[in-house]
C-alpha cells in the first residue's frame, strides 16, 4: 500500500514539472501581445511589441510565468480542500454535523485535607471523558502534604494554588467567621481562574471531602441545558442539607451512616422538561398546598397516617426556626430565604415520609429582614 502511494506521488510530481516545462516553452514562443489578429485588443490601444532589450523581455516573461504559477497554485489548493470528498475511505461514511458537546470542568476546592485523594479517585473513576471534564484542583492554606497528594496525580488534574494566604481584616463581631471570609476569598479567586483565565463557560464545584456517585457526571450534563435556558436559574445542585431522614448537623449521629449511591441513573435519557420553572412551580405548589396540614407533635412522634406528603405550617421567622431546630433540619436564613428553601418551602423526610415545612397559602415573596 505504501509503495503504491509513493509511486502515485512520484508520478504526479513528474507530470506537474513536465506540464510547467511545456508552459514555459509555449509562453516563450508565443507572439508578443498586441500583434494583428490577437483578440481582446481595440484598434486604438497601444500594443506592447518586442523590443531589443533582452533583459526587459526576460523580466516580462518571468512576470507572465509567475502569474501562471500562481494560478496553478490556486488550483492545487482547491484540489487539496476537496481531497476528503474524493478519498475512498470517506465516501461511505455518513456526514455528521452534530453539535459539539459542552466542556464542563470540575473544580475541586481543597485546603489542608490529604484525604482529597478519595475525592479525586472517585472523580477519575467515574469521569467519562478527560476532554469534556477536565479536573481543576484549587488549593488554599498552603498545606504541603495536601499539595504533594495533588501533585501525585500528574497531568490527570490541573493544580492551582491560591496565592493570598494572609488574614482578612473583619469587624470584631465577625472574628469567629474569619474562616468563612477566607473560604469566600478562595472561591472568588478559583472561579475567576476557571471563567476568566481558563475561559470556561460552566463549572461543577466539588469540595475536597465529597465522594461522587457513578451518575455524577451524567446528572450535570443532563441539567446544563436547563441552566442555560432559564435566566432565573443560577446554579444546579446535587446536594441537599436535609436530604436524609432526620438529618441534622451532627456527623457522628447522621453523616457517618450515609451510603454512597451505586445505582446509575441515565439522566440524559430522561424527560426533564417538568423542571422548567413555570411548569415546576405550578406542580410544586399544587402538591404542597393540597397536602394535609399536620402538627409538630404528630410529625415528631411519628404518628403520620398515610403515605404523604404532609404539610407543616409556619408563619413567622421565630416559628420557622423553632420548628426547624426541633425537627433536626437546618434552621438558618439568609435575607429571608431558608436553607434548601423554594418559595419559602423546606422539604424533608421524617420516618420515610415527605413533609413540607411551608408558609401559609398565598405566599408571594421573602421577607429580607428574616436573617
TrEMBL record:
<dbReference type="GO" id="GO:0030145">
    <property type="term" value="F:manganese ion binding"/>
</dbReference>
<comment type="function">
    <text>Initiates complex N-linked carbohydrate formation. Essential for the conversion of high-mannose to hybrid and complex N-glycans.</text>
</comment>
<keyword id="KW-0464">Manganese</keyword>
<dbReference type="InterPro" id="IPR052261">
    <property type="entry name" value="Glycosyltransferase_13"/>
</dbReference>
<keyword id="KW-0333">Golgi apparatus</keyword>
<keyword id="KW-1133">Transmembrane helix</keyword>
<feature type="transmembrane region" description="Helical">
    <location>
        <begin position="7"/>
        <end position="28"/>
    </location>
</feature>
<keyword id="KW-0328">Glycosyltransferase</keyword>
<keyword id="KW-0812">Transmembrane</keyword>
<dbReference type="GO" id="GO:0003827">
    <property type="term" value="F:alpha-1,3-mannosylglycoprotein 2-beta-N-acetylglucosaminyltransferase activity"/>
</dbReference>
<keyword id="KW-0472">Membrane</keyword>
<keyword id="KW-0479">Metal-binding</keyword>
<comment type="similarity">
    <text>Belongs to the glycosyltransferase 13 family.</text>
</comment>
<dbReference type="GO" id="GO:0006487">
    <property type="term" value="P:protein N-linked glycosylation"/>
</dbReference>
<keyword id="KW-0808">Transferase</keyword>
<keyword id="KW-0735">Signal-anchor</keyword>
<comment type="pathway">
    <text>Protein modification; protein glycosylation.</text>
</comment>
<dbReference type="GO" id="GO:0000139">
    <property type="term" value="C:Golgi membrane"/>
</dbReference>
<dbReference type="InterPro" id="IPR029044">
    <property type="entry name" value="Nucleotide-diphossugar_trans"/>
</dbReference>
<dbReference type="InterPro" id="IPR004139">
    <property type="entry name" value="Glyco_trans_13"/>
</dbReference>
<protein>
    <recommendedName>
        <fullName>Alpha-1,3-mannosyl-glycoprotein 2-beta-N-acetylglucosaminyltransferase</fullName>
        <ecNumber>2.4.1.101</ecNumber>
    </recommendedName>
</protein>
<dbReference type="Pfam" id="PF03071">
    <property type="entry name" value="GNT-I"/>
</dbReference>
Amino acid at each position: 500500500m505504501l509503495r503504491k502511494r509513493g509511486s502515485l506521488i512520484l508520478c504526479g510530481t513528474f507530470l506537474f514539472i513536465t506540464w510547467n516545462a511545456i508552459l514555459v516553452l509555449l509562453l516563450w514562443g508565443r507572439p508578443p501581445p498586441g500583434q494583428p489578429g490577437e483578440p481582446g485588443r481595440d484598434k486604438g490601444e497601444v500594443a506592447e511589441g518586442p523590443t531589443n532589450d533582452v533583459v526587459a523581455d526576460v523580466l516580462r516573461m518571468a512576470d507572465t510565468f509567475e502569474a501562471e504559477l500562481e494560478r496553478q497554485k490556486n488550483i492545487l489548493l482547491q484540489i487539496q480542500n476537496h481531497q476528503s470528498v474524493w478519498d475512498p475511505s470517506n465516501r461511505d461514511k455518513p456526514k455528521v454535523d452534530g453539535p459539539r458537546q459542552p466542556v464542563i470542568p470540575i473544580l475541586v476546592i481543597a485546603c489542608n485535607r490529604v484525604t482529597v485523594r478519595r475525592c479525586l479517585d472517585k472523580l477519575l473513576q467515574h469521569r467519562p471523558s478527560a476532554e469534556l471534564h477536565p479536573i481543576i484542583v484549587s488549593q488554599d492554606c498552603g498545606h504541603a502534604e495536601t499539595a504533594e497528594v495533588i501533585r501525585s496525580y500528574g497531568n490527570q488534574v490541573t493544580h492551582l494554588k491560591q496565592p493570598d494566604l494572609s488574614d482578612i481584616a473583619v469587624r470584631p463581631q465577625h472574628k469567629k467567621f474569619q474562616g468563612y471570609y477566607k473560604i469566600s476569598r478562595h472561591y472568588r479567586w478559583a472561579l475567576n481562574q476557571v471563567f476568566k483565565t481558563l475561559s470556561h463557560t460552566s463549572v461543577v464545584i466539588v469540595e475536597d471531602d465529597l465522594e461522587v456517585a457513578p451518575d455524577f457526571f451524567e446528572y450535570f450534563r443532563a441539567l446544563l441545558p436547563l441552566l442555560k435556558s432559564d435566566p432565573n436559574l443560577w446554579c444546579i445542585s446535587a446536594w441537599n442539607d436535609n436530604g436524609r431522614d432526620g438529618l441534622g448537623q451532627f456527623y457522628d449521629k447522621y453523616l457517618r451512616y450515609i451510603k454512597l449511591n451505586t445505582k446509575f441513573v441515565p439522566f440524559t435519557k430522561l424527560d426533564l422538561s417538568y423542571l422548567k420553572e413555570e411548569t415546576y412551580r405550578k406542580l410544586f405548589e399544587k402538591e404542597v398546598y393540597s397536602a394535609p396540614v399536620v402538627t409538630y407533635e404528630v410529625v415528631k412522634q411519628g404518628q403520620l397516617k398515610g403515605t404523604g406528603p404532609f404539610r407543616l405550617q409556619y408563619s413567622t421567622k421565630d416559628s420557622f426556626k423553632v420548628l426547624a431546630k426541633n425537627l433536626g433540619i437546618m434552621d438558618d436564613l439568609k435575607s429571608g430565604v431558608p436553607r434548601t428553601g423554594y418559595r419559602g418551602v423546606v422539604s424533608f423526610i421524617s420516618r420515610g415520609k415527605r413533609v413540607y415545612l411551608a408558609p401559609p397559602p398565598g405566599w408571594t415573596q421573602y421577607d429580607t429582614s428574616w436573617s
